[in-house]
Amino acid sequence: MKELKMKQSSSEQISTNPLIFDIKRYSINDGPGIRLTIFFKGCNLDCAWCHNPESKSSQAQKLYSIGKCAMCSACVNVCENEAISLTGEGIRTDQQLCVLCGKCAEECPTNATEISGYSKTIDELLEIIDREKTFFETSNGGITLSGGEPLLHFDFVVRLLDECKKRGIHTAIDTAGNIPTERLIEIAKRTDLFLFDIKVFDSEAHKFWTKRNNNLILKNLKVLSNIGARFQIRIPLIEGVNTGEENIINTAKMILELDGSTKRVDLLTYHSNGERKFEKLGKELNHHNLKSPSSQRIKEIIDTFMSYGIEAQIGG
Amino acid sequence: MLEELNLVDLKDSVKKADTKRDKTHTYSERISKLRELSCTTQPSLSIERAIHQTEFYKENLGKYSMPVLRAKAFYDHCRRKTIYIGENELIVGERGPKPNCVPTFPELTCHSVEDLRVLNTRSLQRYTIGEHDIQIYKNDVIPFWKGKTLRERIFQNVPENWKKAYHSGLFTEFMEQRAPGHTALDGKIYSKGMTDFKREIEQNLEALDFLNDPDATDKAEEWKAMIISCDAVILFAERHAELAIQLAEKENNSLRKLELKRIAEVCTHVPKYSPRNLWEAIQMYWFVHLGTITELNGWDAMNPGHFDHHLLPFYQKEINHGLITREYAKELLSCFWIKVNNHPAPPKVGITAKESGTYNDFTNINIGGILKDGSDGVNELSYMMLEIIDELHLLQPGNSVHISSVTPDPFIKQACEVIRSGYGYPSLFNPDIYVQELTRQGKSLEDAREGGCSGCIEVGAFGKEAYILTGYLNLPKVLEITLNNGIDPLNGERVGIETGDPAGFRSFDQLYEAFRIQLNYIIDLKMSVSNYIDKMFSKYAPAPFLSVVIDDCISKGQDYYSGGARYNTNYIQCCGLGTITDSFAALKKHVFATKRFSLEKIIKSLSNNFENDELTRQFIFNKTPFFGNDDEYADSIAVKIYNTLFDLIDGKPNIKNGKYHLNMLSTTCHVYFGKVLGASPNGRFAGKPISDGTSPSHGADKNGPSAVVKSLSKLDQTKSGGTLLNQRFLPSLLERESDLEKLGDLIKSYFKLGGHHIQFNVVDNSTLRMAQDNPEDFGDLMVRVAGYSDYFNDLHKDLKQEIIERTENEAI
Q1: Which domains can be identified in chain A, with CATH numbers?
Q2: With an 8 Å Cβ cutoff, is B630 touching chain A?
């Protein structure tokens, strides 16, 4: 955990030495074949339904799960900065004093305390990727870069994609598309597939739910289709946010206007798992009571897309 | 000829019946009824065989050589036993007097009155027996066999140190209750009938040279016994023909009358002569199967081996001539499947009778795979068998799908579909690796390619090898006694040798060396008694009929139990690789590397079952690199242990001019071994199961199935006669077509990496509920949530509940 000692602060560092919060093997829902998905920290949207809230910040974060905590004070005792104290409601960490050295997590017997965010060099990642080679070859799989927003770490991602290309490894980028167009074009030259998230069609609504409008996102999608990049559109479905008929129809029409062959959307239904992660981060939920649409409504949504000649399926 | 009028009429009888299953598949009314009977008939005990055996031994013991006595006793039973032909049956024959009725084998182990009462009343795996029969057993059977059973004779003579180690749960002994079996058939019975075997044997007898061959007498007796046993099976079949004729005469339904006449014709022809068509081929195998499991109660029943390969020529010939429809062929095969299911395993005696086991007798049908020349062996019948497995959903027979580098993808996908809809079966095997395992052991390439798996995951050269499982070895228990200098901490008894006070161990290597010495002692102890038992079977319970169908018993004039088979292997099945690897990893890291804990402290915690020391346990459990995560730290320890086992077991001689080899299966023994084991250094509580086969410990693997198979692939699996990997999956992880393809790709990847076997448990809700209550045991349970997959443990409790409810909905 040495790398955690270097607290990430400037955006300069983020682009060259990004933090990763998870690497999932046998990922079967993030593109073709058996994949390895690398989740980067840092995002420039702030979606209310985010199921990986630890991905929002590009910095390392301490996660604490009171349910697992044995109240043993091992973390309190090991902390050199006296940042941790034991209270009636579990441990409390003084963010001002905490330098994210990770010693508390190392000492925690139950893994109630964890540090989210570690850095890997390109070579280290390639070594991990290489472990999955047989699965990629057998299944026509590869790696998927996800997040957060992986393309915030443009330089790093470019280097990683170049190395993968050299090795013949299929790559996919799971992106929300809210990044400068010229950068996206550069990425398109290097990756085999975009998993492109469309959240809400209406720009104002988009801003309400994600804190950003979607003008750049929709433009970028258009550009990708114009230059012939391969992409799959993914839509998270959250009841009352983007499940209205109008939103579906507008999205369908927008997809029909795109060049290229992809007339397909993958629908990802909302799940509440992220809510627990908010707790672990010690953060309040921005919105409560978010839920997945009913299966009846999902069926109708699929039918609507179908009526526009767009194949829709649950899952990516 | 009946053959001509058969199928036109008979195929009409295949009427589709509605079934309760929510499948699109349906099976005929006949199969529906037979299946119902097979699945709902309470297993019971028959004392008929015991009575025949007792009467025969009373009358004849001492008159003949042992092989001839055994053969004559077998003949006598075939002559007298109740013959059963049930309504709707096409394939006929039962080991007992009716379906699900199991005979006993008092000459090997004689049930006591108490055993019989326990079997009659226990709640799990019950075998009913009436009080009248118990009284007969008490008065006529038990008194005669007292002191004469093979089991008693063996136990009188095993050394004290063996008994101590055995009772402390360091190993089990297979042959203590049942005869050695463990084999499968090749294709010879489809081109040779019993008359052909007899002719071969008679020629050998005629050529016998008493002047120059010192073994001539033994050979003569064995050959005479073989001839008698062939006649016994012919007689057994002919009695079915007679009964079928009688039933046909009384039968009013004209269609059934025809069927019965056909059955009579089939049973008159096979096994006396080689089969001429599919029906006869299946019936041929079934009579041979019944012969071997009636002669003795060999472990793992019998096994047809590559049934799809053997039956294909018959099927093709008849299909091409329009003599059979696909549907009717499937009907015949389904009848066979149900026949196997009608045969629960013979129940144990003594202490083990109180424990529930399984009704499964481990017939394992090999599907797909490769042919003798190495080419793809998947054929039309392979697909048909997959359909049957999926439709019938029977406990028995076990089925295994064999996937080599040349196996076509559509077949793999169909196998994955069956896996999705089912409970563990079919399991998956890799011929590319097991052929290497078998050739490494010294088999010819062709014999190896004709081999496959039987029973659980053990492999052998079908039709040519006796590959005897001798018992399970409790690896974590060996570590436990090493940490206690040879004493079993659970009972304070000295069960091993002194390998040094652990307080004096200064390095991991020192600890490991002590373990290795202890292991060597235990293995040698086990082998010496296994050899003794092998010899007892060879001398006092030869199996002349089994010997007829396994090469080269006839040409050598030697019994299957005496080295007659072309290849003679003894396996020791080593259990708990995951548990012991994780235990060593914990000790290596926390005791010897970081020195966080002293070895004395750990040993004390273990003896207290981590009581008042939960934080130590948690720390070990959460902060140790465990096997199954593609982590070199742990995996290199697993490889080290595996190689040590290989060095200590492989190549040691058995009494049949063969060798011991390493095997890595556990069946359900990891549960028993866990019960007799205190807390282990990997944070496992006392009494909890140890890891199964070569699977990671429960909850230890956290990087997904690809990391698990990577860890497993670091073992050179060609050094063993089988490894076992169980993976749990939720049905929702296999929802989409693409998910099935990816499952197939995972299997192919593992096999490319050198894997022997993999099996998926597509888990149901009861498992999920257990996972809710005991999350630590289910760390590897992966579920598909929505658009992504995750570990069940990592989900919020509400979401867990939601998934359980969702899955239930799916099941309706």
Answers
A1: 2-58+120-314 (3.20.20.70), 61-116 (3.30.70.20)
A2: yes
Chain B residue with the nearest C-alpha to that of A272: B799
| Closest Cβ opposite residue B739 in set A28, A234, A267 | A28
Asked about B230 being catalytic, the answer comes back as no
Query: Do A29 and B746 make contact, defined as CB atoms within 8 angstroms?
Result: no
Nearest C-alpha neighbor of B694 from the set B633, B743, B642? B642
User: Do the Cβ atoms of B629 and B703 come closer than 8 Å?
Assistant: yes
Tell me the C-alpha distance between B733 and B749, whole Å.
18
Which candidate, A192, A211, A195, A216, places its Cα nearest to that of A267? A195
User: Which H or E run includes B317?
Assistant: helix B307-320
Of the candidate CATH numbers 3.30.9.10, 3.20.70.20, 1.20.1250.20, 3.50.50.60, the domain formed by B9-14+28-105+111-145+178-453 belongs to 3.20.70.20
The question of whether B456 is a catalytic residue gets the answer yes
Q: Cα(B326)–Cα(B405) distance, rounded to whole angstroms?
A: 28
| DSSP-assigned beta bridge partners for residue A265 | A233, A312
Distance in angstroms (rounded) separating the CA atoms of residues A41 and A58? 5
B35 — pLDDT class (breaks 50, 70, 90): very high
Q: What pLDDT digit, counting tens, does each position of B705-719 carry?
A: 999 999 999 999 999
Spell out which residues of chain B touch residue A127, defining contact as CB-CB under 8 Å: none
- Pick the closest to residue B106 from B150, B136, B71, B66 (CA basis): B150
pLDDT, tens only, B258-285: 999 999 999 999 999 999 999 999 999 9
User: Is the C-alpha dihedral spanning A165, A170, A174, A180 positive or negative?
Assistant: positive
The 10s digit of each residue's pLDDT in B639-673 is 999 999 999 999 999 999 999 999 999 877 888 89
Q: Which residues of B touch A139 (CB under 8 A)?
A: 741-742, 745-746, 749
CATH 3.20.70.20 region(s) of chain B?
Answer: 9-14+28-105+111-145+178-453
Check CB contact under 8 Å for B749 and A135: yes
Give residue-wise pLDDT tens across range A266-312. 999 887 777 778 888 888 776 778 888 998 999 999 999 999 999 99
Inter-chain CB proximity B706 and A25 less than 8 Å: yes
Which residue of chain A comes nearest to B776, CA vs CA?
A110
Q: Which of A138, A243, A301, A180 is nearest to B403 (CA)?
A: A138
Instruction: Collect all residues of chain B within an 8 Å Cβ-Cβ radius of residue A271.
Output: 785-786, 799
Q: Inform me whether the C-beta atom of residue B192 falls under 8 Å from chain A C-beta atoms.
A: no
First-to-last alpha carbon distance for chain A, in angstroms, is 33
Query: Which chain A residues are closer than 8 Å to B736 by Cβ?
Result: 313, 315
Phi–psi pair at B464, nearest 5 degrees: -140, 5
Chains A, B: CB pairs < 8 Å: 106
Residues B44-103: tens digit of each pLDDT: 999 999 999 999 999 999 999 999 999 999 999 999 999 999 999 999 999 999 999 999
Gap between the Cα atoms of B514 and B27, Å rounded: 59
Q: Name which of A1, A21, A27, A29 to mutate to probe chain B: the one with the most chain B Cβ atoms within 10 A of its Cβ.
A: A29
pTM: 0.92
Smallest CA–CA distance from A128 into chain B, residue: B630
User: In B, which residues are within 8 Å of A273 by CB distance?
Assistant: 785, 790, 794-796, 799
Closest partner CB to A28 (pick from B614, B710, B742): B742
Of A70, A135, A137, the CB nearest to B618: A70
Structure token digits, residue B385: 């068998």
State percent of chain B over pLDDT 90. Answer: 78
At A174 the three-state DSSP class reads strand
- Which of these, B677, B802, B670, B659, lies nearest to B730 by C-alpha position? B802
Residues 6+ positions from B554 with CB-CB distance below 8 Å? B197, B200, B201, B204, B223, B226, B547, B548
